[in-house]
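Subject: Interface between my chains keeps coming out wrong

I've been trying for a while to get a sensible model of this assembly. When I model each chain on its own everything looks fine, but I need the whole thing in one frame so I can look at the contacts. Pasting all components below, labels as-is. Any help appreciated, I'm running out of ideas.
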Amino acid sequence: MRPFHPEFIFTALRQILPYLWVTIATMAGTVFFGSLAGILLARAKIRRGPVLRALSEIYIYVTRCIPSIVMLFIVYYGLPEFMLAFGIDINNFSKAFFVIVTFSILFAANMAEVFRAAYESIDPGQREAALSAGLSEWQAFYRIILPQCIVVALPNFTNALVNLMKEGSLSYTIGMLDVMGKGQLMIGINHGSYSLEVYLALSLIYWAMTLVIEHGFGTLEKHLSKGRKIVAAS
Amino acid sequence: MLEVKDIHKSYSGNEILKGVSLKVEKGDIIVILGPSGSGKTTLLRCLNFLERAEKGSIDFDGIHTEFKSATGHQINEIRKRTGFVFQNYNLFANKTALQNVTEGLIVARKVPKKEAVDRAKQALDKVGLSDRYDYYPSQLSGGQQQRVGIARAIAVNPDVILFDEPTSALDPELVGEVLNVMKSLAEEGATMVVVTHEMGFAQDVASRVVFMDGGTIVEEGTPHEIFSRPRDPRTIQFLRRILREDYEYSI
Ligand SMILES: Nc1ncnc2c1ncn2[C@@H]1O[C@H](COP(=O)(O)OP(=O)(O)OP(=O)(O)O)[C@@H](O)[C@H]1O
Ligand SMILES: [Mg+2]
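Reply #2:
Try treating it as a single job with all components included. I did that and got this:
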């Protein structure tokens, strides 16, 4: 085995960092579509319609039991077959497409729970007071309820985002070239000799990303949480 | 001015309001009394369409409709002309005292911001909160929160203000400040429908007292008629119980 070369960590960083945007872009896509679907699922669960609620609960239950990597392969191999049945060929779609679909499916289930919990934490009396004051249902929601929901949901959302980032590293298994994928490639090219250095470089990148996410959303939460009682840290 | 006839309302087959009719004239202070579960809150909520009554009609200053078939527009119109003061305040937690009051003016009634702020400040001054404009609900005491709730209801110049036990969530020493505000509103000629267990307020301020039990109005009359010469046995029993509690409180 070769000796440890700490300076290679920097070499690795230099080569990996250009792929950071792929990681960030797929995360952003996942967050966008996953949150959107999560909102719809949460809505279905909150509203009284029994059929939609049951469907939403089944979806959440099933997807929560499937490991990301299993879901990734199901989507990667299954979705093209499925679409082919409708005469649509997506075999040549970029890997990022399958990654975003996979993680959106999983993220949506998480978000549904986060949003539902946040919504239910707001006293429905405020909605009624808003309606009484003459606001429409929609105005009551986006002016009164939603801003408070967001504050409540932010810490859990941040957690889910960090988890997404970590699970997202599995995307290399279908050959996606994000930071992890590039790292794996480097290790392969060097026949495994610089593995430790590369993984350390990756750790640094993921660590820095986590730092940015948590700091960013922490600041946002502080900024948005005006009017909320400061509850003593437990 | 406001007249409702024969309101029926059930929850999952359980009839809570069994044909309640009520007439409110301008300047009336109507106090609704009744034991817990008699449907007082439900009645107020039906008036404001927070619950939809299955049967009955409402006549409100030119708007006439069956509860069942009221349109969204009619509901909104009725809400805009009424104020609602809730038992547990229901202030908007993400808004300051001032914004709680301006919200209904600016967003629902399209009052220009500057005018809305002026009117909101006047309303808050009236309830004695001129030094609390920029406080969030979480920074206010219960009594102050409820006074913001009242300011929010009166700032829109409603034709009638509905109060649902406005003091029953308050510590005893804070009840007085809220009742005083309500008294001064009454003196200024506001039209009010008040559900309360404050017998003193009912006796002093009410122009009419309505006693409800089991989803119907059992008896109504002037405070003097109800408190000195109640006729229905249920009223008598209720008053005896409540007034004795009051008495025990005071010793
Ligand atoms: N959303 C609801 N679903 C089912 N039952 C309800 C609902 N709201 C009220 N009820 C029932 O309706 C009855 C009347 O309730 P309401 O709140 O109108 O009574 P109240 O006269 O205001 O009593 P209190 O003095 O305790 O406030 C109660 O038996 C209550 O259990
Ligand atoms: Mg009640």
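Reply #3:
Confirming on my end. Residues 7-229 of chain A form a domain with the MetI-like fold fold (CATH 1.10.3720.10).
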